[in-house]
Amino acid sequence: MVENHNVGSKLAFGSFKGYQGPDLSVKQNHQADGDAIGQGARIGLFDSGLGGLSVLRQLSHRLGASAHSFVYVGDTARCPYGDRSAGEISHFVSQIVHWISNQTVDSIVIACNTSAAVAGDEVRKTANVPVIDLIGVTADLVASKFDRIGVIATSTTVKRKAFSKAIQERDSHKRVTEIACPDLVPLIERGLSESKEMDAVLKKYADKLLKENSEAVILGCTHFPFVDAALTRLLQDRIQLIDPAVILANSIAKSIAAANPETALNLNIEEKSSAYTNAQAKISRSHIYTTGDPSRFRETAKICLGYPLDTVNGITVDELTMTSPVITLVEHAVNTTTVTPNMVPATT
User: Fold this and answer.
1) pLDDT tens digit sequence for 116-164
2) Which residue in 145, 98, 89, 142 sits closest to 117, CA to CA?
3) CA 280 to CA 264: how far, in whole Å?
4) CATH class assigned to 34-133+247-333
5) What does the buried/exposed string (b/e) look like for 105-143 if buried means 16 or more CB atoms within 10 Å of the residue's CB?
6) Domain-by-domain residue ranges, the chain?
7) From 171, 207, 275, 297, which residue has the greatest number of CB atoms within 10 Å?
8) Helix H segments across the chain?
9) What pLDDT, in 10s, does the model give residues 7-64?
10) DSSP labels, 146-213
11) Topology of 2-17+136-245 in CATH?
């Protein structure tokens, strides 16, 4: 049973007791092969804006700063994606994946569920590195643990029924209520994640989830973990919040640890869900780019993350068509804050 609502908890789900994560070595509808991300991998991520930083912080924290490096692109100049046409989104995603693929990365994580819902299958066919999203791994978990599931996401993700289809592919008896939240991303991108205006908007979605008697709610847009504290308060600790980024990071860490037992202690795989919070899950070893204003991106990211990013680099939309690498293997391995000619550091 799937319900869509275009109306304009407890802890974020980390390591649910007894849940060991999906077998990422098996190819799934929404996932590339799990061994695409191995020990020492260089991982690319992208989002329509700064929301994907919620994914980057989990991967950076869970996988071990000494073992991985990351390249992140936030397409702030064209944010939000949630109300754009499928054609536009596919074009944007193709550009970004093309650019990241040339930055000596081993795999790419689509840290934007709208992009994954619209263009995930397409880019997996054309990219020259494995491409992974958050939808399948999240569906694996919720379908195994809950019967009444809420999803809050962008309008496009809800229209595509990305999460409900994935969940019901695993168990058709689950009741999934999807709620489009088109006004959340613009508020978060404006730095208003802790404002009275945000509380008022969140309340209408929280009331709907409570009315539906959902057991759990998936934060179906990667921007939404940045308002989890306010949402938890409004839900009166009655509904379990699920952050797909935590689930993905834990699952990848466990897959790597299984293949490389000697590295397990460096992967934080036994930490509880509280490890996802701002104070503990911090971004490191990352090259961060935005197609918007780097200073503004860094300022807003500080509000969302609770700490400043070391460097944010500017890249124009036109530069996304470049084929030569901007980030070298040496920079991946040695110094992630080196400024190359194409980088425009944000002011501190």
Assistant:
1) 999 999 999 999 899 999 999 999 999 999 999 999 999 999 999 999 9
2) 89
3) 19
4) alpha beta
5) bbbbbbbbbbbbbbbbeebbeebebbbbbbbbbbbbbbb
6) 2-17+136-245, 34-133+247-333
7) 297
8) 53-63, 86-101, 113-126, 135-145, 155-160, 162-170, 184-189, 196-211, 228-234, 244-259, 294-305, 329-333
9) 433 334 443 333 334 333 333 333 434 445 666 678 999 999 999 999 999 998 888 6
10) -SEEEEEE-HHHHHHTHHHHHHHHH-TT-EEEEEE-TTHHHHHHTT-TTSHHHHHHHHHHHHHHHHTT
11) Rossmann fold (3.40.50)
Q: CB count, 10 Å around CB of 260?
A: 15
Structure tokens at 184: 């959340």
Instruction: Please determine whether the domains at 2-17+136-245 and 34-133+247-333 fall in the same fold group of CATH.
Output: yes
- Written as six digits, the tokens of 17 are 């007791």
Q: Which residues participate in catalysis according to the annotation?
A: 112, 221
Total residues found in the chain within this entry: 348
Tokens of 299: 């300022």
